[in-house]
What we know:
Chain A is mostly helical. Chain A folds into two domains: 2-68, Rna Polymerase Sigma Factor, Chain: A (Orthogonal Bundle), CATH 1.10.1740; 90-173, Arc Repressor Mutant, subunit A. Chain A has helices spanning 5-20, 23-39, 47-68, 95-107, 111-122, 127-134, 138-156, 165-173. Chain A starts with a helix and ends with a helix. Residues 75-87 and 162-174 of chain A have low confidence and may be disordered. By secondary structure, chain B is mostly helical. Chain B has a domain at 85-109 and 122-185. The model of chain B is unreliable at 50-62 and 114-125 (pLDDT under 50). The chains are: A mainly alpha, B mainly alpha. The A-B interface holds A 2, 5-6, 9-10, 13-14, 17-18, 23, 27, 30-31, 34-35, 38-39, 41, 90, 95, 98-103, 105-106, 117-118, 121-122, 149, 152-153, 156-157, 160, 163 and B 1, 5, 8-9, 11-13, 15-20, 23-26, 29-30, 33-34, 36-37, 40-41, 44.
Amino acid sequence: MHDQLPDHLLRVYRFAMHLCGDQHLAEDLAQEAMLRAVRAGGRINEPLALKIWLLRVVENLWRDWCRSKGRRPVEAMCDTEIVQEQTEPLEHMTQHEEVALAVNAMRRLPERQRSVLHLIACEELTVSETAEVLQITPEAVRSSLSVARAQMRSMLRPDQPIESPHLQNKDRAE
Amino acid sequence: MNDADDNLNKTIEDSLRQAHQQVQYRPEWASRVLSQISSELEQSRSVDGTLVTLQPVSPSPKRSWSKVTAMATGLAAGLLLAAVGSVFLARSMNRKELDDAANSVANNPPSGLPTDTAPQDASPSNALTEPQLAKSEELPSDVVESDDSVTAGAGYLATKLSSEAEFEIYVVLPTMPINIAGNTK
């Protein structure tokens, strides 16, 4: 198991960066997660299990850090506060611009939706693996992923109507 | 959800994946973390080695010899007690026989002895004289032999058992129990 640890270092660091957005804090979180994996010894033998375990430790460390600082994990925006500043169609942009816009749009997602989208799109985890990392049910993962994708589409394609069930209900109530 | 949404989702997630792959750590930080991991691994392995050495291994020959010595000591003590017990038993048997003889003589005096007193008023003068008692109290020579005390005692017991109908036997057993492992308690 220990031989695989260097292979996971970059993944762990990237997930920590995704969570906190700060280089030094991400380094601390990733380092602590790796050392905990070493101290866990031979309890985790399967590479996939180790990958999930490491990501989960980073998530827990991030939450602990937020708790110790008296801060909630940053929630860039709530479901009803979609900022629609994108006016040009995505198809007309360069690839670099597309990437920058997608990253900016994802930063505006609530934390859970952001993490679900990151783990599924970037880490290419399955729904059940994502549920394990975030310690939520697979149904919650599916729901968060659906809402996150709808909001990303809405932010990056202004003419796209929002399909979030939550927002639809809210609109109906209003 | 239509195909356009699917395509847009794919475009967005490809962009996110590209951005994700551009995130790189600082090489000096990575090398520091990896060296720390190696250090932790070495420590954990050395701790494992210590644990192995702390585990009990097969008993040393010295301990085996101590067990054998304890067993031999216990057996010797048992044999010694058995021998002493046999001698003591033989002496007790002989003393009982002498007492019976003395009573018999006191109640039925020999014809050669003075009979001026009634049999029921048997005085010490009618009993055996001191030299006679002293002589009669002497153990048989085969019992007194100290070198062959155990054999002599066993022979004496066999003779008594074959000649007398009622016979009390006192057996003295070793008081130090010995278990199978040879440890004395």
